[in-house]
Every structure is written in structure tokens, then in C-alpha cells.
Amino acid sequence: xxxxxxDPQALVEYSSGTLxxxxxxxxxxxxxxxxxxxxxxxxxxxxxxDMIDQAEATPVSEDLLQKVLSxxxxxxxxxxxxxxxxxxxxxxxxxxLPHYVRALLPQGSLQWQFLSPSLxxxxxxxxxxxxxxxxxxxxxxxxxxxxxHAGQEITVVLTGTFSDEEGIYQPGDFIVRQPGDVHRxxxxxxxxxxxxxxxxxxxxxxxxxxxxxxxxxxxxx
Length: 221
What we know:
Layout: H1 8-16, H2 21-33, H3 35-54, H4 64-86, H5 99-102, E1 113-116, E2 119-123, E3 132-138, E4 147-149, E5 153-159, E6 162-164, E7 167-169, E8 174-177, E9 182-183, E10 186-187, E11 193-199, E12 203-205
Antiparallel strand pairs: 1-2, 2-3, 3-11, 4-9, 4-12, 5-8, 5-11, 6-7, 6-10
Helix pairs in contact: 1-3, 2-3
């Protein structure tokens, strides 16, 4: 059962289109799994539509309509090409991911980077300039290294479950960590855990693992 959700302000910003791209992707992923937040966002969208209907019309150039219609005509072709490319990903975890997340995967194989014996990470390229969007994979019963956050981290659980010092998290949970938070995620014993994450800054490993910090990559893309 989903127990962690984006805060109301995040949903307002999502509905208004002001969230950063990677953060918006994380919220969209959560909405695919959470009916409560999906309904709330739908209500916000309807409210925004009502406000637009009541606003005064703004004059635009005579050729704007034609430009918009031309863009609409071109969009299906672009999307079809995009979907054909993304659907050809080959990876042993791809089939278990929600459909929306699978559409973000690159062609070919995911490039899983070793972070610890229990943790792998694969960054996703979506045109993001500030935040890193990535998949994190914790093996069944495995523990990720304890780490500190230099910037905000958003995690959406996709498959499996994990726990840390503050609770247990199920598929669909939307967890936000703030700068300075320290934790050590651990997957359930019977199933690996796959999460989608958005990082605003590199993590910093603690303890003996801090020797690896200079080798950690941070890849907004």
C-alpha cells in the first residue's frame, strides 16, 4: 500500500508545468501507480482549465494557429520514432518496470554502474540539465552503502521493497530526502528492489566507503 506521496505544493507545480524535467518524470511515475494523487492532479488540471476559461483573451499573431497545427501534424511521427527506439531496450529488469518507465529506457542495454556488492545504478538520458535521473537496483537482502545527501533526492519505488532507518517502502512510494539526511537502504530478503531516483547533487558515502566518493559520477543528462 502506497504511504508516501508528493506534497501538495509539488502537485500544484506539476500541474502548472513548473517542475524540473527529472522531478516531473518522478511525479508522473508515481501518478501511474497512485490513484489518490492522480485524482488530485486531475482536479488541479480542471481548476487550471477553469481559470484559463475565465481569463481575458490575449491577441496573438495571425500565423500562430498555422504553426501550432503544423507542430501537431509532425508530433505523431516524432513520437512513433521515439517509441520504436525505446522499445528495443534489452535488460533483465526492463520487463518488470512500469510501462511509462520502460519508455524512458535507452536503446540496447542499460549501463549498470557498480556502487557496492549490493547496489547498481544506471543513469537515464532525458535532456535534463540540472538533476540526475537514474535507476537504482538493490539485490534481494542487500544493503546499499550508508550515505549522506548534498542535495535533495527523490526516490520512487518501482518493484520490490526496501527499508531504512525511517520505514518500509512499497511500489509507488514517493520518498524525498533533504540535504544532510543520512540513511542506508536495504532490500527485502525475497526480492530485489528497483527504484527511480532524482538527484540534485552527488551522494556522499560515509564510513570506510567514503574512499569511493571521488569515483562517484553525477550525470545530469
